[in-house]
Automatic annotation (TrEMBL):
UniProt name for this protein: DUF72 domain-containing protein
Domain of life: Bacteria
Annotated Gene3D superfamilies: Protein of unknown function UPF0759
Pfam families associated with the record: DUF72
Region ranges (Disordered): 90-109
Organism, as annotated: Dactylosporangium roseum
């Protein structure tokens, strides 16, 4: 029987910590993670997008969580074509002359530096993998990453660099899904052994992708961004400020159940990361899935 894991994108963002979701007595990093892991069996670690954590940090994550808990880990932003602040690079790998805007992209660094960054990223995954806690490496490509041959090669190269760990690819430009490209995109990911990340998000924007459900590799992954009317021009908080309605969650519970008929494991991640809303939506979605399971038996 397939497993549907439900979790949220982050367990320690600032708005969550001030929302009251954690009890007053739960105030240490380890305590918060243990509390979270008592309510969900999946989380997306997003701190690794901003800077590569030390292996000691991920080892502490493994110690704070029970057997059966899973971390999907976001790749360092530099790997997926984003600008990153020079200060987030390890000191010994920073360019000798700081760029005028204080940020760099992958193409600004020597290939050997990029290789070393990947090695350090793998080093930080090792404690999670050794403890049986590692799910997928989440590769979230930027909204300007449009369909093309060079972009396809970049995806394939990045997926390959994740090996031996599984990768999941989230595309944020509608050009990958226009006409027959949707099928070609899925086949490309399937051939690469990468999971396609289905996204529920606002439609009608250049960054919009349709909520297509497909299994290209294990596990199947679905991320929920909500439907904020401020997606196009709001702050990060505005973009993801959304409360899923009961009917939406019921519909998605049924869709996830159907998806689980094609996958051994499904990861469902709430990214409505404002003041504990993701945790509330995730808990309700998990309850609906449990109700479905109980009725099916």
């Amino acid at each position: 029987m397939s497993v549907i894991r439900v979790g949220t994108s982050s367990w320690a963002d600032r708005e969550l910590l001030t929302s009251g979701w954690y009890p007053r007595g739960v105030h240490t990093p380890a305590g918060r993670l243990a509390y979270y892991a008592g309510r969900f069996d999946l989380v997306e670690a997003d701190t690794s997008y901003y800077a590569i954590p030390a292996p000691e940090t991920t080892a502490s994550w493994a110690l704070a969580t029970p057997d059966g808990f899973t971390f999907d880990v976001k790749a360092f932003g530099l790997f997926t074509g984003h600008h990153v602040r020079v200060g987030t690079l390890p000191k010994d790998l920073r360019p000798p002359a700081a760029p005028p805007n204080g940020t760099v992209r992958r193409s600004d660094l020597p290939p050997e530096t990029v290789d070393e960054l990947w090695q350090r990223f793998h080093d930080t995954l090792d404690p999670l993998a050794a403890a049986g806690r590692l799910g997928v490496i989440q590769l979230g490509f930027p909204p300007w990453f449009a369909h093309g041959e060079a972009a396809t090669r970049r995806i394939l190269d990045t997926v390959e660099r994740c090996q031996p760990h599984p990768a999941a690819v989230e595309l944020r430009h509608g050009s990958w899904f226009q006409g027959d490209r949707a099928l070609k995109t899925m086949l490309m990911l399937q051939s690469a052994g990468a999971s396609y990340v289905c996204v529920d998000m606002p439609q009608g924007h250049p960054s919009s992708v349709p909520p297509l459900l497909a299994v290209t590799a294990e596990p199947a992954v679905v991320r929920f961004h909500g439907h904020s009317p401020d997606w196009a021009r709001g702050s990060k908080e505005d973009k993801f400020r959304y409360a899923y309605q009961e009917r939406e969650l019921r519909d998605w519970a049924a869709r996830l159940r159907r998806l689980s008929e094609e996958a051994d494991e499904v990861h469902a991640l709430m990214n409505t990361c404002c003041a504990g809303q993701a945790q509330r939506d995730g808990a309700r979605l998990a309850a609906l899935l449990a109700d479905q399971t109980a009725r099916s038996h």
